[in-house]
Design brief:
By secondary structure, the chain is of the alpha/beta class. Helix content is 32%, strand content 19%. The protein contains eight helices and eight strands. It has helices at 16-25, 48-56, 75-79, 95-104, 150-163, 180-187, 196-199, 204-212; strands at 3-6, 31-36, 62-67, 84-88, 108-113, 131-135, 169-173, 191-194. An eight-stranded parallel beta sheet has the order 1-8-7-6-5-4-3-2. Helix 6 links the parallel strand 7 and strand 8 (191-194). It is globular and about 40 Å long. The mean pLDDT is 97. Bound molecules: D-xylitol-5-phosphate and zinc ion.
Length: 214
């Protein structure tokens, strides 16, 4: 069964206290938290204090997606609140060093690539990754249209992970909805991030169940 990691980016944060129990009851696997610094991406979201507050209210594993410049500067702080901790290959940190540090700090490591980055560029880092996140929109905003060039990238990463004998979660993020989710699963995604699709649903538990049953 595919895993689901709802992204709270475009939600009304003050409603999360009521929505999180619905996620727990409907079998959500992770909660996706988008951290943006206004430098690596042209948008600013939230940081450690907000994640800490969310953590107090749930045992759902927190899937923190750092969209920040030179993420090594803040990795210790985020490792204290994250379960899965991911950063961008393009963000200017020592990639292998940071993946190792994330694991040493007790989190699952995740390496993320933007739409213009070829999957082959990160093949050498796969043994250090618990998850790879393929962006299917330009990072920065929720509610954008799914980019189909992410599908062959998932396929290539899946094949390479198998070739290296690794078991890695493959996550896709951006524009996931009822039409695009099956394509992503077919291409090899094991974790779907969905923001607008989940938070704009009339019946959140039913939507979660539908998407997970793909
Ligand atoms: C975009 C973020 C996404 C975003 C997804 O930079 O990384 O996680 O919230 O939102 P949707 O599902 O609406 O595209
Ligand atoms: Zn994200």
């Amino acid at each position: 069964m595919v895993k689901l990691s709802p992204s709270v980016l475009t939600s009304d944060f003050l409603t999360l206290k009521e929505i999180i129990p619905q996620f727990e009851a409907s079998g959500v696997d992770m909660l996706h938290l988008d951290v943006m610094d206004g430098i690596f991406v042209p948008n600013i979201s939230f940081g450690v204090p907000v994640i800490k507050s969310i953590k107090k209210h749930t045992n759902i594993p927190l899937d923190v997606h750092l969209m920040i410049d030179r993420p090594h500067r803040y990795i210790k702080e985020f490792a204290e609140v994250a379960d899965w901790l991911g950063f961008h290959y393009e963000a200017g940190s020592d990639v292998a060093g940071l993946l190792k540090e994330i694991r040493a700090l007790g989190c699952k490591s995740c390496l993320t690539i933007k739409p213009a980055t070829a999957p082959e560029e990160i093949f050498e880092y796969l043994p250090l990754c618990d998850m790879v996140l393929v962006m299917s929109v330009e990072p920065g905003f929720g509610g954008q249209k799914f980019m189909p060039n992410s599908l062959p990238k998932l396929k290539a990463l899946k094949a390479e992970a198998e070739r290296q004998g690794l078991s890695i979660e493959l996550e896709i993020d951006g524009g996931i909805n009822a039409e695009t989710a099956p394509l992503a699963v077919e291409a090899g995604a094991t974790v779907l991030v969905a923001g607008n699709y989940i938070f704009s649903a009339e019946d959140i538990p039913a939507t979660v169940k539908n998407i997970k049953s793909l």
